[in-house]
Amino acid sequence: MAYIPFDEVKRLANILQxxxxxxxxxxxxxxxxxxxxxxxxxxxxxxxxxxxxxxGCKVGGDQISLAAHILGVDQKQAAAQIMEHFQGYKPAAxxxxxxxxxxxxxxxxxxxxxxxxxxxxAAAIGIGYAGKGTLAGRVLFPIRSDKGxxxxxxxxxxxKEPRLKVGQLEPP
Length: 172
Description:
This protein is of the alpha+beta class. The chain has six helices and eight strands.
């Protein structure tokens, strides 16, 4: 099997998107493990950290590990399947955009969707809802230098003053 860029696979889909693709029936970010059919709440997903834990099977990890666990394959095969499934949803024009940023931003949050930004595009650009931090409760938009370096964020919230708030910036 060819080289699989795990970092790129992780940028393609967050753990909730992978769980949805795997058809896990999440309720409050918990579900039954289809591998052992144990307790209905034995898989716990922590979206802010992009991690999961299966208490029945005593395994855990990121979205690639989750796919490997549920599909019964190794991590390289799981990463290849995630890439194959989600690659089609990533617009080619966005593939050259700078990546990186706050790992806890929720790209598929209702606040992002209400602005008309599809989760796939938000993830590719680095837009997401912040549930914590100095800009908590806002949709964050990255501010980048002309070379693509992340300098800070602008946070937007329609129902809160100020509607726009700037996060800490670094000199370019």
